[in-house]
Amino acid sequence: MPEGDTVLQTAARLHRALAGQTLTTSDLRVPRFATADLTGRTVLDVTARGKHLLTRIEGGLTLHSHLRMDGAWRIYDPGERWRGGPAHQIRAVLGNAAHTAVGYRLPVLELMRTQDEEQAVGHLGPDLLGPDWDADTALRNLLSDPARPLGEALLDQRNLAGIGNIYKAELCFLARATPWLPIGELPARTATLLVSTAHQLLDANRDRPNRITTAGGRSRTVASAAARTRRPSESLWVYGRTHRPCLRCGTPIRAAEQDDRPAYWCPSCQAGPGPA
């Protein structure tokens, strides 16, 4: 599942390709909006909000999309072959004289009035990479249900927006807590540090195609230095490393299902209950 930093990068690519340009091609391949014609309108901007993409278009319209598990937007030059997937997976095409943006496997695609955007994203908590980021509000949201497992609380976009399964696993490791530990059992200082670390990690990776969490996420400079020295298999602490040795203690990493998604943890470094 794309994380907040990936969605932000997607928004930036779409903005560079479409913003300020008049649409010459418009094709929304979902039944509800199949007859909508956006040609002749100018794209004003493309903005990320958590894991949501908002493409604002002249005339007070917004095309709202969400990538979820395997959706993607691809940008093509004139005459370039579209390679993002078979034609039946295309859900949207927006083109101008210089570029064509093609949306593949988009589970959420809707055209709405820009003034109604809050209907799509108003439920989200503070955006880890947005101008509305508020660590205190995010912390209060997370702790509002003390009995909830840490991993589930981190993935709930109503608490804070932008964390996916990768960052969930990595943040639990850095907090030295299993994903099943009730979040209310985290020491107060650890919970506060967890929120600030989430922001630091996503910010450190916001402009990088290859995500790194083992650098500590303190700054983009630190993350860049780590990219030059660490092997790809050492770029993440636990995510996707089942049975491999923990980079901190050497204990084999374990994996189990949590809320229908794989959860990864080190049984030596992380305290708390395991899966039921």
TrEMBL record:
A Pfam short name: zf-FPG_IleRS
Domain Formamidopyrimidine-DNA glycosylase catalytic residues, every copy: 2-91
Keyword vocabulary terms for this entry: DNA damage, DNA repair, DNA-binding, Glycosidase, Hydrolase, Lyase, Metal-binding, Multifunctional enzyme, Zinc, Zinc-finger
Catalytic activity from the UniProt record: 2'-deoxyribonucleotide-(2'-deoxyribose 5'-phosphate)-2'-deoxyribonucleotide-DNA = a 3'-end 2'-deoxyribonucleotide-(2,3-dehydro-2,3-deoxyribose 5'-phosphate)-DNA + a 5'-end 5'-phospho-2'-deoxyribonucleoside-DNA + H(+)
EC number(s) given by UniProt: 4.2.99.18
Aminoacyl-tRNA synthetase among keywords: no
Cofactor requirements of the protein: Zn(2+)
Keyword hit for Hydrolase: yes
Domain FPG-type: start-end pairs: 237-271
Top enzyme category: lyase
Family assignment from sequence similarity: Belongs to the FPG family.
Protein name in the entry: DNA-(apurinic or apyrimidinic site) lyase
Species, as recorded: Streptomyces drozdowiczii
